[in-house]
Amino acid sequence: MNGPAAVEPVLLALRDVHSYYGHIHALKGIDVEVRRGEIVTLIGSNGAGKTTTLKTICGLIHPRRGSVEFEGREISRVEPHRLVRDGIGHAPEGRRIFSRLTVEENLLMGGFTRSSAENVETLERVLQLFPRLRERIHQQGGTLSGGEQQMLAIARAMMSRPSVLLLDEPSLGLAPILVQQIVAIIKEINEQGTTVLLVEQNALQALHIAHRGYVLQTGRVVLSGLASDLRQNELVRKAYLGES
Fold this sequence. Notes:
Layout: E1 10-21, E2 24-35, E3 39-43, H1 50-57, E4 65-70, E5 73-74, H2 80-86, E6 88-91, H3 103-110, H4 116-129, H5 131-135, H6 146-158, E7 164-168, H7 176-191, E8 195-199, H8 203-209, E9 212-217, E10 220-226, H9 227-232, H10 234-239
Helix pairs in contact: 3-6
């Protein structure tokens, strides 16, 4: 995928961000930019700092140094629920749906920052994106298949009408045919106007749908650039694409 035709303004930026878990220095001065309308992917091995980056953006972790900026405003000390209201949606790793609530109830929980009228409109939009969820609308979330639960997690995040959607390992544990469905839905969400920051274990899939990417190793950005260039990079091909 090529970059957007016109250079769009920076929507989300991390500047020299250092994040910690207790005494563990997880992010060591990373710089990441996401422009409006892009799909940007973060790739790297387990423990590289990808999930920590998303948690830092959405307020679950506050960086000790550096800044996180969203729409030109510093947000590194803003509480998570306010960031949802401001336009940052997050579908976390492991789905984290409400297993005893129905599909519809899960979705409406995702729209807690929006009005009832907005939720009616957005619910119809996400059910068009995820027709499988329409068929399961009255089922409890815990009775869904793994692929359906992943769809529900993404759809729930979309209910807040985010400007940027953070996706953490959306294909994890899914069969290849379901991975293809999830990837197609992510592309469609982006084409409909939502910016996406994607963490994905399947680096090949991620680099095929992304405009740009960042490679993280032990809390540092070691490579960045157009996704098409990263696909051809020797380090990326050997370490993450399984090529020799």
